[in-house]
Amino acid sequence: MDRIRAPAVFSQRKREKGMRSPKLSCSYEIKFNKFVIFIMQRKMGMTRRMFLMDLARRKGFRVESELSDSVTHIVAENNSYLEVLDWLRGQAVGDSSRFELLDISWFTACMEAGRPVDTEMKYRLMEQDQSSPLNTPESEVPSFIASKVSQYSCQRKTTLNNYNKKFTDAFEIMAENYEFKENEIFSLEFQRAASVLKFLPFPVTRMKDIQGLPCMGDRVRDVIEEILEEGESSRAKEVLNDERYKSFKQFTSVFGVGVKTSEKWYRMGLRTLEEVKADKTVKLSKMQKAGFLYYEDLVSCVSKAEADAVNMVVKNTVYTFLPDALVTITGGFRRGKNIGHDIDFLITSPGSREDYELLHKIVDLWKKQQFGRDLRRYATHERKMILDNHALYDRTKRTFLKAASEEEIFAHLGLDYIEPWERNA
């Protein structure tokens, strides 16, 4: 794989790695004495090889700088079995069977696990290239060819089984950070890369796994490579610890607050929601006031059971006005998620019948029912009365109270009358 790349935002990590001095003089505790690893420099480069050797030593592995009789495992990157044999012949090695010849993906798996992993068939370099569909049993042939994966999500079948969450989580952090910086190009780059990796029916364990896939630019590849080598992304970690990102993350969690408003508040020196609420100079829109007022409800998660219960409420209310309407849950719950942050509905009316005021009617009805429920609760708990759709009953006096209007009901309950337009509870 060609390691020379055009200058980019993420190329700094490469330069930093290249400038590090290998810690050859440092002594590390050897935890796994039975494994003696030799990493081939061929097609890898000296800087990367030295970095990987040092990484393995820090993890407790024994790594030899030179090929010797003590070596048990030879690791190669982007080299075929025949290429490794040819290289060994050049080192005057007559019998290669005493070595385990392994792809770099085995080394990566060991680094991630922090211990030696089994040298399964998928890691071994064999005389016949096992990664080639031509030499793979029919039952093990991948269901797709990387070069034929579409760049458009609408042409890919993606389930909730995400085998590459450690990569996509990092991508989504990066994408959100670029969104906060209003860099739509870089944000979309990471969003699209995350979408592609979510589609894969297998976990990425080596850089070779992403060859030919769309949306794998230099910035994306750098993050993938670092996670494979280190187990995490230092870039994503830096973002999570960045003051600006943390403030924007809080601000945009409020309904009605976007990047522009977040930028304004940040420039004012505000860093938390508590500081925003305490600052008397902050002018909130009507939507933002509602966002703060109902903040806890809006940021809390909704379960599938709650979504199903709300679905029944919505359906029953819609049928009151349009008996033949179709009410369908859409969004995340329709895609099979068990947890969401909101519930989306699609309401359609078959035929030519339409009701442009339907949503207003539904909301108005719910406003009355919220308010009416609390009125009945007040009657029960505070006045020892029973209020239903038919009458008002005084349990203490054991008698029905006469009421010809809403005003009289309020009076019996000892409440000031509230006009209908004042009942937006």
Describe the structure.
- With 425 residues, the chain is α/β, with parallel strands linked by helices.
- The protein has 5 domains: 11-140, Rossmann fold; 146-240, Orthogonal Bundle (DNA polymerase, domain 1), CATH 1.10.150; 243-299, Orthogonal Bundle (DNA polymerase, domain 1); 302-355, Beta Polymerase, domain 2 (2-Layer Sandwich); 360-422, Beta Polymerase, domain 3 (2-Layer Sandwich), CATH 3.30.210.
- 43% of the residues lie in helices and 10% in strands.
- The protein has helices at residues 11-19, 46-58, 81-90, 104-113, 165-180, 184-199, 218-230, 234-240, 243-251, 259-267, 273-278, 286-293, 295-299, 304-321, 358-382, 406-412; strands spanning 32-39, 61-63, 73-76, 100-103, 302-303, 326-330, 339-340, 344-348, 385-387, 392-394, 399-401.
- The strands form 4 sheets. A 4-stranded parallel β-sheet has the order 2-1-3-4. A 3-stranded antiparallel β-sheet has the order 9-10-11.
- Strand 1, helix 2 (46-58) and strand 2 (61-63) form a beta-alpha-beta unit.
- Helix 5 runs antiparallel to helix 6, helix 5 crosses helix 7 (218-230) and helix 14 crosses helix 15 (358-382).
- It is elongated, with a radius of gyration of 32 Å.
